[in-house]
């Protein structure tokens, strides 16, 4: 068989390929030749073939068939074969493949080899891809090499020990005796790898960390090494841009950071050397900046002196003036982490941070914006808000939402006056109204309502702001609300804060009507405008007839929300005109309730007010359809029918024909309904209200109860009753109890059944289950089973317990036959 081509020739040939298909053809041809050579057990060219296979592997082609050949090369006595074999093992093998275990004995023999370079190959391979089994078997050999006097082997053994500790942490103590003399080594390679090993041990074991702090006195040794590096003269072997071994300095600083964290003695021992590094390191080159950055991180993480922390923040301030964008970004990120603990020191660099808002790089701009908001306080709020509002004017759209939210929060917290607060929020709404959060409108309305002396000023400013521009919907909503509420102040021109404007009643109505017919107005905005027009019927005297005409027009609007409002307002004019002034009188001052819940708009009689609600889980029976569908996705399967919510409505109950429409294609058999139900409120269940009989039997007719769920102290029992109005309806009452020592809050029970059934959940009695079985939550489930099939149900439980959100799914299949037959 002819000799295979050399690796260099293969590379040259592959590079001549003009297309990917041509390259693939060359690779396949060469792989076929290599396979043939492997089958013939050609020992002469095995090394060359494996080398070519590794090149193909680097190009992304499959090379797994060369794994065993790598093992054969490792077992060879020739160094060149071993080198390629170990390289192939590191590239083609990993611990997920059992083949790698065949290497264990070869590596063990090579670790005891007389040649240091063979030992080095074995250490590199074990440190690269050794599994936990291999590490356990070979840790003893690695520990012996860690104690050898050969620096070449010691540095490789230290890195291999790091891999062994990561794979088998319990072997850490084996290497503890060998670490005692590692830091006394003169060789920088050994020092570097020793620091890496010590760092790994300290990070993984608190006991090791305490041992090195107290018994080994590691901090003084590291301080001595770092001081020698700083004070030593030029060393061509370790010099990088005029700095002696910056890689070792960075590693030592990281280890000092771990040792000094939450330890006063260690922190005090390293304060002086950290100050020397911070003041003596050259900043003109990137190498020096890397060391200074690690120094800053160490100073901030240990219990350092206040002067040293100020020095660290000043270094970050100098970084902000650097031309390198990466350095500026790193400085902003670090300052953002330290601004809470060293606020005054960071404040000194406020102007530089604000200048970063003008940077072209979006990541730097975002960090500068976050840091600017963190620097706002009562003393600088006016100046900082001016800069941030300017930034809001010119920034990209992706920044506007976060910037507007930050300005709102800062203005609410540090506003020097109510007028300034209102002006600032109006400026945000004018500039970036489409990007503000949903709660911005009710919050501003509440602020305006509570600022009684600013009503005339505010309504005049808002009126000017929306003249001819309805693009900022939140601004138009607030303006419509204020014009409806304080339109009389606008027309009377009673503004004392600035020069009043002369506005007639017709001009005010023209603006609101323009909002109603504008294509840019959302449905919610039109609702605000129509309600404002209705309110003005009690504020204005000369345009009441015009208002009646506008309201009556929208009684036939295709927008259901507008139509409903207009119909109700028409009824006020026609039937309850004597009540209209009282219903539409000015809103009282709203009390601000401080909770963690979201602000929500509550509409009452067409007027909009703000209410701050506690965050509570909605009752299961009132959950919207999309939440029910989410439950179905979680429960899985296509044979599940959704929950029918019990939505209260003012519509009276009607005859059985409408009921059949609601139930769809269910085959309901029974006598036709001959008379309509009594004119009462809609019953909570679809099948209720057809007769005047009780909903279900007073006695459970001997149906035994079951335990549907019992886990983690939560127990849910089902009791059963049959409906008197329809034998196909089973009424299930759940009782949830809690046997743990702490109550379960925000409890929500959800259920789903196959499509042949229909299910309804009523509201639960509570959302809190008391501890120690001292009380229960009850909730009623109604199931329509017209085909008398065996009942199956999937349930989902969510609640908070011991500060954690809990969630579980379960399937209930043990319903007694009496409940469904």
Automatic annotation (TrEMBL):
One GO cellular component, as annotated: AP-1 adaptor complex
Species annotation: Junco hyemalis
This protein's UniProt keywords: Coated pit, Cytoplasm, Cytoplasmic vesicle, Golgi apparatus, Membrane, Protein transport, Transport
Main localisation: cytoplasm
Cleaved signal peptide residues: none
Record membrane topology: Peripheral membrane protein
Highest taxon above the source species: Eukaryota
Entry's Gene Ontology BP terms: intracellular protein transport; vesicle-mediated transport
InterPro entries registered for this protein in UniProt: Adaptor_Complx_Large_Subunit (IPR050840), AP1_complex_gsu (IPR017107), ARM-like (IPR011989), ARM-type_fold (IPR016024), Clathrin/coatomer_adapt-like_N (IPR002553), Clathrin_a/b/g-adaptin_app_Ig (IPR008152), Clathrin_app_Ig-like_sf (IPR013041), GAE_dom (IPR008153)
Function: Subunit of clathrin-associated adaptor protein complex 1 that plays a role in protein sorting in the late-Golgi/trans-Golgi network (TGN) and/or endosomes. The AP complexes mediate both the recruitment of clathrin to membranes and the recognition of sorting signals within the cytosolic tails of transmembrane cargo molecules.
Annotated protein name in UniProt: AP-1 complex subunit gamma
Record SUPFAM superfamilies: ARM repeat, Clathrin adaptor appendage domain
Places the protein is found: Cytoplasm, Perinuclear region; Cytoplasmic vesicle, Clathrin-coated vesicle membrane; Golgi apparatus; Membrane, Coated pit
Keyword Endoplasmic reticulum: no
Matching Gene3D superfamilies: 2.60.40.1230, Leucine-rich Repeat Variant (1.25.10.10)
Similarity comment: family membership: Belongs to the adaptor complexes large subunit family.
Residue span, GAE domain: 701-816
A Pfam cross-reference name: Adaptin_N
């Amino acid at each position: 068989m002819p000799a295979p081509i050399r690796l260099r020739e293969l590379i040259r040939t592959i590079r001549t390929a003009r297309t990917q298909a041509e390259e693939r053809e060359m690779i396949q041809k060469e792989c076929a030749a290599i396979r043939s050579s492997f089958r013939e057990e050609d020992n002469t060219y095995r090394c060359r073939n494996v080398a070519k296979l590794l090149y193909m592997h680097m190009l992304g082609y499959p090379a797994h068939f060369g794994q065993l050949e790598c093992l054969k090369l490792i077992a060879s006595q020739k160094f060149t074969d071993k080198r390629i074999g170990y390289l192939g093992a590191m590239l083609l093998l990993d611990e997920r493949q059992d083949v790698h275990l065949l290497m264990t004995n070869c590596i063990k023999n090579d670790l005891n080899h007389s040649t240091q370079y063979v030992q080095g190959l074995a250490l590199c391979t074990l440190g690269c891809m050794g599994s936990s089994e291999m590490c356990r078997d070979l840790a003893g050999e690695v520990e012996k090499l860690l104690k050898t006097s050969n620096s070449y082997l010691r540095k490789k053994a230290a890195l291999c020990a790091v891999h062994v500790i990561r794979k088998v942490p319990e072997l850490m103590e084996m290497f503890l005796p060998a670490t005692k003399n590692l830091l006394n080594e003169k060789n920088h390679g050994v020092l570097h790898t020793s620091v890496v090993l010590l760092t790994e041990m300290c990070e993984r074991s608190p006991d090791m960390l305490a041992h090195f702090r107290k018994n080994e006195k590691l901090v003084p040794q590291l301080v001595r090494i770092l001081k020698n590096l700083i004070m030593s003269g030029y060393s061509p072997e370790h010099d990088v841009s005029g700095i002696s071994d910056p890689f070792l300095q960075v590693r030592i600083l990281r280890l000092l950071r771990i040792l000094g964290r939450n330890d006063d003695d260690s922190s005090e021992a390293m304060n002086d050397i950290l100050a020397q590094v911070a003041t003596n390191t050259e900043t003109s080159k990137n190498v020096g900046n890397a060391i200074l950055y690690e120094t800053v991180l160490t100073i901030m993480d240990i219990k350092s002196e206040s002067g040293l922390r100020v020095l660290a923040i000043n270094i970050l301030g100098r970084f902000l003036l650097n031309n390198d964008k990466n350095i500026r970004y790193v400085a902003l990120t670090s300052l953002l982490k330290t601004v809470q603990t060293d606020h005054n020191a960071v404040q000194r660099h406020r102007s530089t941070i604000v200048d970063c808002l003008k940077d072209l790089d979006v990541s730097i701009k975002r960090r500068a914006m976050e840091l600017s908001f963190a620097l706002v306080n009562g003393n600088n709020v006016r100046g900082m808000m001016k800069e941030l509002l300017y930034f809001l004017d010119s920034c990209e759209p992706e920044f506007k939402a976060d910037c507007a939210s930050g300005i709102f929060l800062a203005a609410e917290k540090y506003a020097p006056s109510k007028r300034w607060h209102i002006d600032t929020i109006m400026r945000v709404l004018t500039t970036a109204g489409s990007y503000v959060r949903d709660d911005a409108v009710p919050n501003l309305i509440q602020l305006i309502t509570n600022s009684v002396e600013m009503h005339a000023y505010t309504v005049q400013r808002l009126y000017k702001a929306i003249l001819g521009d309805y693009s900022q919907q939140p601004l138009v909503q607030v303006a419509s609300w204020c014009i409806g509420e304080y339109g009389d102040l606008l027309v009377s021109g009673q503004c004392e804060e600035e020069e009043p404007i002369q506005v007639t009643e017709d001009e005010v109505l023209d603006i609101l009507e323009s909002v109603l017919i504008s294509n840019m107005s959302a449905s919610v905005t039109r609702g605000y405008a129509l309600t404002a027009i209705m309110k003005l019927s009690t504020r204005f005297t000369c345009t009441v007839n015009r208002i009646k005409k506008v309201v009556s027009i929208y009684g036939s609007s295709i927008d259901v929300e507008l139509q409903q409002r207009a119909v109700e307002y028409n009824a006020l004019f026609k039937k309850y005109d004597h009540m209209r002034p009282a219903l539409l009188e000015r809103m009282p001052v709203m009390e601000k309730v401080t909770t963690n819940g979201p602000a929500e708009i509550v509409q009452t009689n067409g007027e909009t007010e703000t209410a701050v609600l506690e965050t509570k889980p909605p009752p299961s029976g009132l959950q919207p359809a999309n939440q029910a569908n989410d439950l179905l996705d979680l429960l899985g399967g296509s044979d599940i029918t959704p929950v029918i919510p019990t939505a209260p409505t003012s519509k009276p109950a009607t005859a059985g024909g409408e009921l059949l429409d609601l139930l769809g294609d269910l085959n309901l058999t029974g006598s036709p309904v001959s008379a309509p139900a009594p004119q009462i409120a809609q019953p909570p269940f679809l099948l209720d209200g057809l007769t005047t009989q009780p909903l279900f039997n007073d006695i459970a007719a001997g149906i035994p109860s079951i335990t549907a769920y019992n886990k983690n102290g939560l127990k849910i029992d089902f009791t059963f009753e049959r409906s008197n109005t329809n034998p196909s309806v089973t009424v299930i009452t759940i009782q949830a109890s809690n046997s743990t020592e702490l109550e379960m809050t925000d409890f929500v029970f959800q259920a789903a059944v196959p499509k042949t059934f229909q299910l309804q959940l009523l509201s639960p009695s509570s959302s809190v289950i008391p501890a120690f079985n001292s009380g229960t939550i009850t909730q009623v489930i109604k199931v329509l089973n017209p085909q008398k099939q065996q009942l199956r149900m999937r349930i989902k439980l969510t609640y908070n317990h011991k500060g954690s959100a809990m969630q579980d799914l379960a399937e209930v299949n043990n319903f007694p036959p009496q409940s469904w037959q």
